[in-house]
Design brief:
The protein is mostly beta strands. It folds into 4 domains: 107 residues, Sandwich (Immunoglobulin-like); 86 residues, Immunoglobulin-like; 158 residues, Immunoglobulins (Immunoglobulin-like, Sandwich), CATH 2.60.40.10; 131 residues, Immunoglobulins (Immunoglobulin-like), CATH 2.60.40. Helix content is 0%, strand content 38%. The chain contains no helices and 34 strands. The strands form 9 sheets. Strands 2, 4, 5, 7, 8 and 9 form a 6-stranded mixed β-sheet that branches. Strands 17, 29, 30, 32, 33 and 34 form a 6-stranded mixed β-sheet that branches. A 5-stranded mixed β-sheet has the order 19-26-25-22-23, with no helix packed on it. Strand 15 and strand 16 form a beta hairpin. The protein is elongated.
């Protein structure tokens, strides 16, 4: 093979867990590829050529030329993430190449360039009594779920690991006995060693005082007399398509690209109970509806509903030149791109970037925000501020208000024996698809037992049997059949409602409710006693 002992050594990598054995993951776009050849043949070599293939060996392009007298490695910069194959060709002093045909020999080195960290979305965080749950989505092409971590803490306490298995979409349930602000944290990794972290806090629930029930639920339906004057959200998660860059030298002006997000999957909405007539109320709004359009007719990205006004935005920097990035500007629009305002400027340009919507004396915190990030190079160059009509790169709907919840005194179900009609009213502009949890307790402060469990298709859970809590559609009423072995005849009731942003509110009955539905009946056997005489 002549000088065929030449090879490229990728000694700084280790094979990925789910990648081909000969493909090495690397989390930087720039790398030095060592040059190895037979030193005894050095005097015969004129040039060393580095060839690169971006399509698994179908075509090859010459990338660099090195000299055996002065070079010990090739400096390679990937223009974009992806898989790159490498070959080194030796040209002798007679102009002959080895190997002569790159398609007939295996690639000397195969590398997966992955500089992007996983994108984490904590879709929900709920707590009902001592029971808490969280769910998440992770977007990553090459995840390393063996390193996945999920944790929680209460207040300023230490982080406590959850027994949660890493997956692209997952859920964890856990018990929390302490009181205070509940926080959860998810950490995700990919095979190239990139790491992401996301933290979410749960707002404290609000107790609602029991209200007087309507006079007759079977003759008149409940109607909100003072509806909330809040504009509906546009809902959804931000989706931004990545753009693959061609192999070109880097230019001076950096461009920010936000990571791709996918809308959460919403469970189907259950139909309301038909007997007796359901309570009329505001229909819940789904978080992942179709995108709206701005004034120019262009489709807007869906808005992610959140219950915080200060959050971190992850982004990637493309087309970064030698001077690097000196500043990052956050631009905000409240009218989907008609007018833009420079919200903040920071010299901390590493991702993630903190966006604080409480700054600048914001008079109306809640609502939909459009966001763009503008980067400035070390030379002061940028793509310029967004203009009127420019689409935001992402949209968030800030919802800090928990649902408004009222609970009414139950009434007997005249159509079913031993059954009570539980009644409530819950309103929110971002109500979740199945937001309602029903519970009972022998005392006003708990412990609380679920009335409806996931393993109970008929909805007849009567004791504290350990079944999963099931949420109900916001129908306004539920037929609760009291089991024969129910442990008490007087209970307190609690209704909890959650919205898409994770806000939770509850309402409790101020006094215990009688759940003994039996009506005693006397059966006469006759007169007893010695004084009884037959009348003639």
């Amino acid at each position: 093979m002549g000088l065929g002992t030449l090879m490229l050594l990728g000694t700084m990598w280790a094979p990925g867990q789910t990648l081909p054995a000969d493909l090495y993951p690397f989390n930087q776009s720039k790398m030095d590829i060592p040059i190895r050849y037979d030193p005894a043949k050095k005097s015969e070599i004129r040039d060393l050529l580095l060839f690169v293939s971006k399509n698994q060996g179908e075509t090859w392009e010459q990338y660099a030329v090195a000299s055996p007298d002065r070079d010990t490695f090739f400096a390679f910069t990937a223009p974009a993430d992806g898989t790159y194959w490498f070959h080194m060709v030796i040209v002798d002093k007679q102009g002959r190449r080895d190997p002569a045909d790159l398609k007939k020999v295996p690639a000397a080195l195969k590398v997966l360039i992955d500089t992007k960290s996983p994108v984490i979305a904590i879709r929900s965080l709920d707590r009902v009594g001592d029971e808490a749950s969280m769910s998440w989505d992770i977007q990553e092409t090459h995840p390393d779920f063996a390193k996945f971590q999920a944790e929680y803490r209460v207040g300023d306490g230490s982080w406590i690991p959850l027994d949660a298995k890493g997956s692209a979409t997952g859920m964890a349930r856990f018990r929390v006995s302490q009181t205070g602000l509940l926080s959860v944290r998810v950490q995700a990794y990919d095979l190239a060693g990139n790491r992401s972290e996301m933290t979410r806090d749960l707002s404290a629930p609000i107790n609602a005082i029991a209200q007087n029930p309507p006079k007759d639920i079977q003759q008149s339906s409940l109607r909100l007399t003072e509806p909330l004057d809040i504009p509906p959200p546009n809902g959804g998660m931000t989706t931004i398509d990545p753009v693959a860059a061609p192999i070109l030298p880097p230019i001076e002006q950096p461009v920010v690209k936000l990571p791709e997000r996918q809308p959460p999957v919403q469970p189907p909405v259950q139909p309301p109970i038909q007997q007796p007539a359901p309570v009329e109320q505001v229909s819940p709004l789904a978080v992942s509806g179709p995108a709206t359009h701005n004034s120019t007719g262009l489709p807007l990205p869906n808005a992610q509903v959140i219950n915080v006004a200060r959050f971190d935005v992850a982004y990637d920097v493309e087309q970064k030149g030698p001077s690097g990035v000196s500043k990052a500007e956050v631009w905000v629009t409240r009218d989907d791109g008609k007018a833009w305002q420079k919200w903040s400027t920071t010299e901390k340009t590493e991702s993630p970037l903190t966006v604080d919507l409480t700054a600048r004396n914001n008079p109306q915190m809640e609502g939909v925000y459009g966001i763009k990030i503008v980067l400035l190079s070390g030379a002061g160059l940028s793509k310029g501020p967004p203009l009127s009509g420019d689409l935001p790169d992402m949209r968030v709907d800030v919802d800090l208000t928990p649902p408004v919840v009222k609970i009414y005194e139950p009434i007997p179900d005249t159509m079913s024996k031993d059954t009570m009609i539980l009644r409530w009213q819950a309103v929110d502009r971002n109500m979740a698809a199945e937001p309602i949890t029903l519970e009972w307790s022998e005392t006003q402060d708990g412990p609380w037992n679920s009335i409806v469990g996931k393993d109970d298709s008929s909805g007849q859970v009567g004791t504290s049997t350990p079944v999963g809590v099931k949420r109900l559609a916001n129908s306004g009423q539920y037929a609760w059949k009291i089991p024969a072995n129910f442990p008490t005849h007087r209970v307190y009731l609690r209704v909890s409602a959650r919205d898409v942003a994770g806000n939770i509110a509850e309402a409790r009955t101020p006094s215990p409710i009688l759940v003994d539905m039996n009506k005693p009946v006397a059966k006469i056997h006759g007169i007893i006693g010695a004084a009884a005489q037959e009348r003639r």
